[in-house]
TrEMBL record:
It comes from candidate division WOR-3 bacterium. This is DegT/DnrJ/EryC1/StrS family aminotransferase. Pfam families: DegT_DnrJ_EryC1. The active site is at residue 187. Belongs to the DegT/DnrJ/EryC1 family. The keyword Mitochondrion does not apply. GO terms for molecular function: pyridoxal phosphate binding; transaminase activity. GO terms for biological process: polysaccharide biosynthetic process. The keyword Signal does not apply.
Length: 370
C-alpha cells in the first residue's frame, strides 16, 4: 500500500535542509531571536516579491489581520464584510477590534465570497471588506475594488492561502488598501512555527502597524499608545527568506498536481472538481472536491493510506463562537449545502506522480459500482 500523507513538511525540509540548518546557526550566533536583521531581510524580500512598498511582519496570520484592522481605525459600531466559508481567524480579528462581522455566502463555483451579494449588505455602519482568496484562488479584485470605491470602503485582502497567486497577471496582496498573510507551517510559504504579516503601499498605515506590533512603540520604552507584542521571531524570518526563493517553483508543481487530478478524475460521477476562474493564477493551497459521499470517501481513503482533510466542516455562522452575531440555519444556503460535501485531497510540491496515481486509483475504486 502506498502511503500518501495530506501534507509532507519533512520532505520539503530535506530539500532545503542545508540552507535552513546553516541559517539556524547564523541566527543563534547573532542572537537575533526576535525581530532583527533576519526578519527585516524577509520583509524587504517579500515586499519586493509582491511589488508593494511595505511589508510588516507579525507573529501570526491572525495578528496580521488584527493589526491591519486596528491601523485603519476599525472598531466598535463598525461592520466588516467577510465570507462565511473561511477559517475563523478572518472573522475573529473583526470581533477582536470590537466590530461586527457581516457574513457573505460563497460563490457556488469558486467557493470564494459571492460578490453579487455584497452590495445588499452595505449600510452606514459598513467600513471594510475582507475578501479571502480561498484555497489559493484569487477573488475578482476588480469587482471588489469597484464596490469599495463606490461605497468608500477599506479593502483588506486575506491572502493566507494564496501566496504567489495572481489575478489578471497581478499578485494578490496588491489590490487592497492592505493585505494579510499567514505563514503557518502548512501554507504555500510556511514558517517553522508561526508567522504572519501585512502588505501595504501606505507609508502612514505601515508606520502605524509597525508600532502596533511593538507595544505602541517606535522608540524603545517610549509608548505612544497601548499596542501588542506581535513580533516575528528571527528564525522564522530566516526560514521564510530561504523558502521564498522556491515559492514560484513549488506553486508551479502544485498547479501540475491539480491539473493531473482534474484530468484523471473528470469522468468520475458525483465528483465536483475545482473550478478555475478566468484570468486567475490559482496556487492550489488546497485541492478541494465536492461529493455526496464525503464521510464514506474520507474513511475509505484513510483506510488505504491516503490523508485528507475538511475545509471547513461548518460555515462560520453555525459555529458556537459566532452565535452572538444573530444568524441562523438557512441564512447562507450555498455554504450550508456545500459544507458537508467538501473534501481536501493531498497536495504538496514534493508529491510524486506515483502518489497522485494512487490517490486517483483509490477514488475510482471507491466509486466503482456506485
Amino acid at each position: 500500500m502506498v502511503k500518501v500523507p495530506f501534507l509532507d513538511l519533512k520532505a520539503q525540509y530535506h530539500s532545503i535542509k542545508d540552507e535552513v540548518d546553516k541559517k539556524l546557526i547564523e541566527v543563534c550566533e547573532n542572537t537575533a531571536f526576535t525581530m532583527g536583521p533576519f526578519v527585516e531581510e524577509f520583509e524587504k524580500k517579500f515586499s519586493e516579491y509582491l511589488g508593494v512598498k511595505h511589508f510588516v511582519a507579525t507573529s501570526t496570520g491572525t495578528s496580521a489581520l488584527h493589526t491591519a484592522l486596528l491601523a485603519f481605525g476599525i472598531g466598535n459600531g463598525d461592520e466588516v464584510l467577510v465570507p462565511v466559508n473561511t477559517f475563523t481567524a478572518t472573522a475573529e480579528a473583526v470581533v477582536m477590534v470590537g466590530a461586527k462581522p457581516v457574513f457573505v455566502d460563497n460563490d457556488p463555483l469558486t467557493y470564494n465570497m459571492d460578490i453579487s451579494k455584497i452590495e445588499q449588505l452595505i449600510n452606514h455602519k459598513t467600513r471594510a471588506i475582507i475578501p479571502v482568496h480561498l484555497y489559493g484562488q484569487p477573488v475578482d479584485m476588480e469587482k471588489i475594488g469597484e464596490i469599495a470605491s463606490k461605497h468608500n470602503l477599506i479593502v483588506i485582502e486575506d491572502c493566507a492561502q494564496a501566496h504567489g497567486a495572481k489575478f489578471k497577471g497581478r499578485m494578490v496582496g496588491t489590490f487592497g488598501h492592505a493585505a494579510c498573510f499567514s505563514f503557518y507551517p502548512g501554507k504555500n510559504l510556511g514558517s517553522y512555527g508561526e508567522g504572519g504579516g501585512v502588505a501595504t503601499n501606505s507609508d502612514q498605515i505601515a508606520e502605524k502597524m509597525d508600532k502596533i506590533r511593538n507595544h505602541g512603540s517606535k522608540i524603545k520604552y517610549i509608548h505612544e499608545f497601548v499596542g501588542y507584542n506581535y513580533h516575528m521571531h528571527g528564525f522564522q524570518g530566516a526560514v521564510l527568506a530561504i523558502k521564498l526563493k522556491y515559492l514560484d517553483e513549488w506553486n508551479k508543481r502544485r498547479r501540475e498536481i491539480a491539473q493531473k487530478y482534474s484530468e484523471k478524475l473528470k469522468d468520475v460521477k458525483d465528483l465536483s472538481l475545482p473550478y478555475i476562474q478566468k484570468e486567475c493564477e490559482h496556487v492550489f493551497h488546497l485541492y478541494v472536491i465536492r461529493t455526496s459521499y464525503r464521510e464514506e470517501l474520507k474513511q475509505f481513503l484513510n483506510d488505504n493510506g491516503v490523508g485528507t482533510n475538511i475545509h471547513y466542516p461548518y460555515p462560520l455562522h453555525l459555529q458556537e463562537s459566532y452565535k452572538f452575531v444573530g444568524y441562523k440555519q438557512g441564512d447562507f444556503p450555498i455554504a450550508e449545502e456545500y459544507a458537508p460535501k467538501l473534501l481536501s485531497l493531498p497536495i504538496f510540491p514534493e508529491m510524486t506522480d506515483e502518489q497522485i496515481d494512487y490517490v486517483v486509483s483509490k477514488i475510482k475504486e471507491f466509486y466503482k459500482g456506485r
